[in-house]
Amino acid sequence: MVLSAVFILDIKGKVLISRNYxxxxxxxxxxxxxxxxxxxxxxxxxxxxxxxxxxxxIKHNDLYLVGITRKNTNAAAQxxxxxxxxxxxxxYFRTLRExxxxxxxxxxxxxxxxxxxxxxxxxxxxxxxxEYITQESNALDIITGAVGLGSGIPSQASTPGGPRPPQAxxxxxxxxxxxxxxxxxxxxxxVVESINLLANPDGTVLRSEIIGAIKMRVQLSGMPELRLxxxxxxxxxxxxxxxKAKAVELEDVKFHQCVRLSRFDTDRTISFIPPDGxxxxxxxxxxxxxRPLIWVESIVETYSGTRVAYLIxxxxxxxxxxxxxxxxxxxxxxxxxxxxxxxPAVGSARxxxxxxxxxxxxxxxxxxxxxxxxxxxxxxSVRRAEDIAKRPRPxxxxxxxxxFTTSGLQVRYLKVVERSGYQALPWVxxxxxxGDYDIRMAEAVAVAANSESALNNAAAFAEGN
Length: 465
Hints:
- The chain has about 475 residues and is an alpha+beta fold.
- The protein has helices spanning about 35-40, 75-95, 100-105, 105-115, 125-130, 165-170, 235-240, 260-265, 385-390, 450-465; strands at about 5-10, 15-20, 45-50, 55-60, 65-70, 115, 120, 140, 145-150, 185-200, 205-220, 225-230, 250-255, 270, 275-285, 295-305, 305-315, 325-330, 340-345, 350, 355-365, 370-380, 395-400, 410-415, 425-440, 445.
- A hairpin with a 4-residue loop joins strand 1 (about 5-10) and strand 2 (about 15-20).
- The termini are far apart.
- Belongs to the adaptor complexes medium subunit family.
């Protein structure tokens, strides 16, 4: 688990910041990186190789964060470091773009030196780094583009022999400093699940999975210990407990460093001393089959090969007492679609030529409710229905359903123990939202221009427009 050098590049591959940690590579090797990424087919992998060197990278806005190694290193661990370093820079600068890199290069070199030693990742907790890296940052205003001095980075009083790092860095609990005080002690916990799904027009689910995360915002004084209990299937089976509630078997569980893994392995108890502020306590994945929460049915008709009509039906297939918010349905149309018209029963619709789609937005959709959108557009040349059906992209759906989890994961308890004995108020919330949620469109059907269907659709569009 070692990197020889770390680079920050602009979108064209020009080096903005670089740090050579081991001196065992030629720094000009970075010139080979952008051609490797550009030449890669489709989506380039996060690790590319050339001349015995491995380039491990992430892309963020108009920047590349790249690590180079010639050793057989743990690529996943290095990707985690790059993501953490990106999060640190965002914490300092608010918005991470090329301008913020150019305006804060001295601070970034300090952070590179503190977060990695001789190519080995070290300390990456932003709240603790801010206690002893006190160089003021220039934060980019994302609205005006203006640059100003960052706030929130504490100044450190000089001490004999120079400034010293905070005690938390050398403590066993390096992610939380001592002496934290809050007027009101509260814990906010969000169970957020994203649904990845691909379905055929006939309702067959081809791929589905649940990607979950437990996110926390902690405002607790002192050095508290928290214990979290879930409806974990493995825990219930190991203790011989039976429950009428649904138990969930978690897969690919990943914890924040504050969790005592030995305790979890022994008795499945999630025990931890939390950082102060916001963090992801754990992530998990479930491969259980998922029924589409929002189903999209499509009917595609072509008239004389010069005009196409869509009928899109949207149905909320979740419990009736829940409501989906901020729904966005991206309905693909040919790139050369002409004069699109649409008539949504609910919400609003617009044509987005840059996305090659009609965007249908709905603020609220109760469970069990159905609504529809009719749209039509012309084509600049005559085409057969099968030619139109060859290239439709799937319909993409975005949504958010509060107070609902697809997996059935539940927080059984959240206990806060602190030696001063204060009372803390825990708040728990559940959210389900879309991940890569796509439903394929039905094939186009040719319809005679004077048919009953064509006349009905024409009347419907005339009435709505």
